[in-house]
Each structure stands twice: as C-alpha cells, then as structure tokens.
Amino acid sequence: MQIKLNMPGRPLLKLFVFAICLLGCTVLALAQQEKIYDVIRKDDKVGTLKATFTNTPMGQLYYIVSKVKVWVVINVKINYDQSNLFKNGLLDKAGIIRTVNGSTKVNNNIMRTPAGYVCMKKDGDTVMLKEEIRHTVATLYFAEPVNITRVYSENSLRFLTVKNTGPHIYELTLSDGKKNYYTYKNGQCTKVQAETDHGTIFLIARQ
Length: 207
Hints:
Blueprint: E1 2-6, H1 17-28, E2 31-41, E3 44-56, E4 59-72, E5 74-87, E6 90-100, E7 103-113, E8 116-120, E9 125-129, E10 150-153, E11 158-166, E12 169-173, E13 179-185, E14 188-196, E15 199-205
Antiparallel strand pairs: 1-9, 2-3, 2-15, 3-4, 4-5, 5-6, 6-7, 7-8, 8-9, 10-11, 11-12, 12-13, 13-14, 14-15
C-alpha cells in the first residue's frame, strides 16, 4: 500500500551512492561484478551503461551509471546514476538521478524505516510504502527473474509487472505502458530492448 504525502518544504536526501562509494567499497568489497553495455539506437552506438554489483560488509550494493547522446532535432544528452543497497534480502536505500541536457528530470530517494519505505521525489512529494521491496529494476541486470512477477521501479516509485515471454526473455511493463524486454544467458542479462521517449534502444552486453 502506498500513501502519498505532500512535503514541499522538506529537503531531498543526497544521492547516497556517493557516500557509500567514498566510504570505501573498493577496499571493503568482498566480491564485485561489473557489466558494460553498449547503447544502440538505429544501428548506431549512442552511449554506454555500466552496472556494478558489490558485496560489502554494509550490504549488497548495485550501482548503475549511463551516458547517452542522441540526435532528435537537437542533440540530447541523457545521464543516469542509480544506486541500491540491500540488507538481508530487502532494499535498504536507493537513489536515482536522471538529467537531460544538464537539467534534472528525476531525483528520487528511497529509505527503509521501521514504518516502511519513505520514497521522496525531487519536488518534495513523498510516498510511504508498507510492502517489502525484495527486487528492483536494477537487480534485473544481475539475475534472471525466475518466478518473479514484479519489481520495484526506482524511477517511477511503484511496482512494475514482470512476465516471462519466451526462453530466458522477460517483459517489464513500465508505468506509462511502454514495455522493455530483458534477455538472459546462463542467468546473466545479455540484452535489453527498451522503449524510450527517443525511440527504441538496445543495451548489448560486452563479451
């Protein structure tokens, strides 16, 4: 259950990923997995996405950063930074920032509290979520969602439906009705087909 609160005077939390990384994940990391995807649009490479999973004493950290530049009448530069920290199988903190040509379009922060999750948008609006979050969109890059029917979106701050549509292919329905498709091999995400405001793009994992 989500309860929306309007808190315009409350400052947003800083994107916690920077504090975590600076705290020493590189030194403290027990295990790390990194994936790099080329972003393809109309057969042209327009950017990259790097997804990193780090197992630390603080918890399991997922960090995704992407930089994309496309031509749609004018040049459009899209930068995306996202981080999730899981503890004991539950999302503990998350942060996401998305900018377009230097203008911040999304700045969401999620924090688990004894009363549930506090999900804050850049304008100060806050959503309280009582349900547990065990899977997010970020986790789709590192594990095939077998028997998983929904994941939480750090971008739209709601649960999204996941459906198996073929051998190791999964459909993710976004909040605006667009559909993304994730393809896996040996449990690892090798390709993402994403519908965006700038057309269809493909994320192809480097070998």
